[in-house]
Design goal:
This is Substance-P receptor. Helix 2 runs parallel beside helix 8, helix 6 packs antiparallel against helix 7 and helix 8 crosses helix 9. With 408 residues, this protein is mainly α.
Amino acid sequence: MDPVFNGTECSATNEANASANCSNGFNQFIQPVWQITLWAVAYCSMVAVSVIGNVVVIWIILAHKRMRTVTNYFLVNLAFAEAAISAFNTVINFVYAVHNEWYFGLGYCRFHNFFPIAAIFASIYSMTAIASDRYMAIIHPLQQRLSSTVTRVAIIVIWMLALLLAFPQYYYSSTALLPGRTVCYIDWPEYTTVDFRKIYYVCVTLLIYFVPLCIMGCAYTTVGITLWASEIPGDSSEHYKKQLVAKRKAVKMMIVVVCTFAVCWLPYHIYFLLHQFFPDWFEHLYIQQAYLAIMWLAMSSTMYNPIIYYCLNSRFRAGFQQVFCCCAPTVAKEELELKTPHYLQTQASIYRASRTETVVSTTVRPEAAEQKTAELPSCASHSQPPVEVTSNGSGPQTFPERPKTPSQ
């Protein structure tokens, strides 16, 4: 969807109309400095949290072998899309919304209108893919899961579809030089029989919001009923209980992510649908403040996910502690199994080696020693007390040591 603030008639459907309607060069949307300062602090803070948080999420998953799962690969794609839209679009969009003047040229105007739709599409369909994977894993556990190769192919397909959907925004983007300022707008073609612009925006809203949310809603409703409707059987093994609790936590985290996305983006989509059908409503002075608030809420969805991961997932929490808390205890990191691939390989080698050896620990047992000494011949008077042997974790077993030959 067109992320550019079109509060005046300067956003007409062609450059001639844009020039004609804004021939006086007057910009009615100039704000006082204190308002611009407050909005700037709000937007810059949100961008900083979003970019840093999502970059750390990407690092946690890619740098730690135990985190490289199908679900987490889609989380990497989600984090990349959100970090990119925050870094490359949010601040520029804020500057244009505040001044209603475009400073960045035609090339970035096209990118600015094109990339947000692609990024939002990639974000929400990454969440949809996660919901589908959770559904198959819990409702149909015997069916084959996605492999890492298929997951990468799915991510590539998602981005190809996203770029295809956003291409009209790139193709029809243009800039117009008006008296006193430049504007970036989309020069939609005019047809007598059909309004291409309205059809496009309605389709985009359905494809990047309502349809995937309906799919995820159905999937998580079914999964939630399966996981939470029945109590854990009393005679279940401890392993089964832990698995069920882990599945509930994972699904709960993703439900919070999806609900947060839905709440943040709903006002944004309603705003632009209304703008297509009731453009006269958007010529009042208050609409600029409304747009800045709605856009901040929508863009802020990119900074909530890292916070949600930290609060609801112990491994992500350990990863953030590794980055931001250098004094985090090593024991906690090991317990959360958040180790580098090299460390995991080393530990696995040590573990395999330990299973091939017998760990011998000597314990002194006077009573057993006296009993064995009485049973042995006199040449065993110099023998050692019995030893306790633990082999392959099977429990201790006690054997007397072989008597030594008396020295000559």
